[in-house]
Design goal:
Largest sheet: none
Radius of gyration: 44 Å
Number of strands: 0
Number of domains: 1
Number of helices: 2
Distance between the termini: 141 Å
Length: 109
């Protein structure tokens, strides 16, 4: 009778150890799966952010290129002066120079 009880206790103990091992293995599997899924989520989110940043960078570069082209066009317009405008500017400079004395103060004429 005692050996039956001892065998029963050992059998229960073996089943308990098997349950603990199975639970430990399942927990390890769940943790590994969760780590893989979280890694995928992080990589996916990182890829989306990089793509968004790249799109914003391309847009900023296009905007800067447009502003540069507009600025260069405005320089071309302002640097092309007509002959008449250049003569008017030259005449004003000559008038200013003629109205000043050697010290740089305008003299009244």
């Amino acid at each position: 009778m005692r050996s039956d009880i001892i065998n029963e206790v050992l059998s229960v103990e073996d089943r308990a150890q098997k349950i603990v091992r199975d639970a430990s293995n399942r927990a390890r599997d769940y943790i590994s799966e969760a780590q893989l899924k979280s890694g995928e989520i992080v990589r996916s989110s990182l890829k989306e952010v990089r793509e968004q940043n790249h799109t914003e960078l391309l847009q900023a570069e296009a905007d800067a290129q447009l502003r540069l082209a507009e600025f260069e066009a405005s320089l071309d317009i302002s640097s092309v002066l007509s002959e008449q405008t250049l003569d008017q500017i030259a005449n004003r400079i000559v008038d200013k120079i003629c109205k000043t004395d050697l010290i740089g103060v305008e003299s009244e004429q």
